[in-house]
Specification:
With 348 residues, this protein is of the alpha+beta class. 18% of the residues lie in helices and 29% in strands. The strands form four sheets. The chain has a seven-stranded mixed beta sheet. It has a six-stranded mixed beta sheet with strand order 3-4-2-1-17-14, with helices on one face. Strands 11-12 form a two-stranded antiparallel ribbon. A hairpin with a 2-residue loop joins strand 15 and strand 16. Helix 4 runs parallel beside helix 5.
Length: 348
């Protein structure tokens, strides 16, 4: 007899990732987010302020550095989710990607190409030229519709256009699933501008649910705020506890990870923040704790860590190992760590 606690001890493969509890089988689907920290090619994009990432720029960004960045990020992306599912993630939202050319080069790396990883990307208006994208394994997720919902300043400002909300609607495990990938305004702006983002994403998700009450919705991204900041907790309505989640609200498991466990995804002045969040609509929760998993249900979550992602020595020991720090190229990964969650569903 197989016990539930042994579910993840079984080494099985992609859609046959199974375990038995009372002779039942389950599929497990990793869903992740990762800020790739300035993955630029070496060419100038007209109209974009990407001059730092040119061979003549301050980062002296040449083909060797670009190639190493691609290899490093593809390694990390391929490893995400393999703690529990050998085939890796079903979907990974990413931010700070320059353009489709970079995504072509990234998904052509052997670690991702061998899995058939594809991407969805829409060029956005950000002046620095960074966008969000969704990487996906077509054997686990089928996209059907996507669009970029713009971030709109409440005062009508059009001179500081920034990243919109990449919205991808598709199907996972036979169920409708919407994934919204975000990169909210930076900490260089006041919290007011991230509050606007929270309001606008909530309006978007409310509209999606009005159009189709069966939609399961995941909002993910680098929010540039912690889970208990107003943009997430108040304006998006992402709650700390499942029992607090209303019909149109979200559950934010990272609130407890940060405030209860003291873990984060990036460091600042010696402390941890957790800007990289994945939150879940009520339709993806086991709110009655029946453990039936007859529909896609949030099962587990964690910050993805590997030794190679962490600075092992020096002033920033213990922090994420970034590509460049203090003007020195470290040949690292990102100043953020990825987050990953797992959806589960009984296989009939």
């Amino acid at each position: 007899m197989c016990m539930r606690k042994n579910m993840f001890s079984l080494l099985l493969v992609f859609l046959t990732t199974t375990a038995c509890t009372a002779q039942k089988k389950y599929g497990l689907y990793p869903v992740a987010f990762y800020n790739l920290e300035n993955i630029f090619d070496t060419q100038h994009d007209e109209g974009k302020n990407d001059y730092e990432f040119l061979p003549t720029g301050s980062y002296h960004w040449d083909e060797n550095k670009y190639t190493n960045k691609l290899q490093n990020m593809s390694r990390a992306l391929a490893d995400i989710g393999t703690d529990k599912v050998p085939a890796g993630a079903a979907v990974i939202g990413v931010s700070e990607v320059e353009n489709a050319h970079v995504l072509d080069d990234l998904t052509a790396q052997p670690a991702l190409k061998n899995r058939g990883i594809r991407y969805i990307h829409i060029e956005g208006p950000d002046k620095r030229g960074v966008d969000c994208a969704l990487l996906y394994n077509p054997r686990m997720f089928t996209p059907k519709k996507w669009f970029l919902q713009p971030y709109v300043y409440e005062n009508g400002d059009t001179t500081r256009a920034t990243r919109g909300f990449l919205t991808v609607q598709g199907e996972m495990a036979g169920e409708p699933l919407t994934v919204i990938v975000c990169h909210w305004p930076s900490r260089g702006a006041t919290g007011y501008f991230r509050d606007i983002a929270g309001k606008q994403v909530r309006h978007l998700t409310d509209s999606i649910l009005v159009a189709d009450s069966n939609q399961r919705i995941i909002v993910m991204g680098d929010m540039n705020d912690d889970p208990d900041n107003d943009s997430m907790a108040k304006f998006l309505g992402a709650k700390r506890k499942m029992k607090e989640v209303g019909k149109s609200d979200f559950f934010n498991p990272w609130w407890e990870v940060l405030r209860g466990q003291g873990q984060g995804t990036l460091t600042y002045q010696g402390g941890w923040n957790l800007f990289d969040q994945i939150v879940f609509s009520r339709s993806l929760l086991d709110v009655k704790e029946r453990k039936e998993y007859s529909h896609l249900t949030l099962y587990a979550w964690h910050i993805f860590r590997r030794d190679y992602l962490i600075q092992q020595e020096g002033k920033y020991k213990g922090s994420p190992k970034r590509t460049t720090a203090g003007g020195t190229w470290l040949n690292g990964y990102s100043d953020h760590l990825p987050t990953v969650s797992y959806l589960i569903k009984e296989m009939k």
